[in-house]
From TrEMBL:
InterPro entries: UPF0637 (IPR009403), UPF0637_domain_sf (IPR053707). It comes from Tumebacillus lipolyticus. The lineage of its organism: Bacteria, Bacillati, Bacillota, Bacilli, Bacillales. HAMAP family: UPF0637. This is UPF0637 protein ACFSOY_05930. Belongs to the UPF0637 family.
């Protein structure tokens, strides 16, 4: 299944009021694109990581009242799910698309990654572009620009990862919706691949803690 490119309808689903109506719009428009991306990029990520990577499109099944404000496809080395593992993501809010690496609060590996993150922070700053964004909360789409972050900001992220149940971190880029809609299918795929390669050292760092 080939990615057919972004449209304004994909981002407009988050303007639809009500859980049931928004989910219907999301399934009709955005989920199709996320499924396409999941299938098309899985072989690339498998090649880059050296292990089979499986796509998981968000279902939002736990939601009973509040409609989702974003949606995504995640890739992990586990066929059954991604939340327990370091993973890659592509998704969208109403205002932008995002391409990220992350470890969320459900992963038992987050404390060990926190240690490695601080230990290798100088190396991370060399490898990850200063324009990339760090998100200590995946529900806050603003993020922090790495160039503007101080040591204390990284330490706070690491502390939350290691010590708080809801600790998590996502790192990557956002592409404004107007720009994403204007991009060709191949241009977005190329941007995604470039971003994943850039983030690959963080993925490997996460697994170096368990080997």
């Amino acid at each position: 299944m080939k990615f057919s490119g972004w449209s304004n309808e994909d981002f407009d689903v988050f303007q639809v009021e009500g859980l049931e109506a928004r989910m219907e719009a999301l399934i009709t428009h955005l989920r199709v694109k996320l499924t396409e991306l999941g299938e098309e990029l899985a072989p690339f990520l498998s090649e880059q990581t050296g292990e089979e990577m499986f796509p998981h499109v968000a279902k939002h099944a736990r939601r009973k009242t509040n409609p989702p404000r974003d949606s995504w496809v995640a890739w992990s080395k586990n066929k059954r799910g991604y939340k327990m593992y370091p993973h890659f993501q592509i998704g969208a809010w109403e205002t932008h698309a995002f391409i990220q690496f992350g470890i969320i609060y459900e992963s038992p590996m987050k404390g060990l990654f926190a240690e490695q993150m601080i230990k290798h922070l100088d190396e991370i700053k060399q490898l990850i572009p200063a324009s990339y964004l760090w998100y200590p909360d995946h529900m806050d789409p603003s993020g922090m620009v790495m160039a503007e972050m101080e040591l204390v900001d990284f330490e706070k992220i690491a502390h939350r990862l290691a010590n708080q149940k809801n600790g998590e971190v996502m790192i990557g880029v956002k592409i404004p919706r107007d720009e994403a809609v204007q991009m060709s299918e191949q241009a977005f795929l190329d941007r995604a691949k470039e971003t994943f390669v850039t983030l690959l050292p963080l993925y490997r760092l996460a697994f170096s803690t368990t080997e």
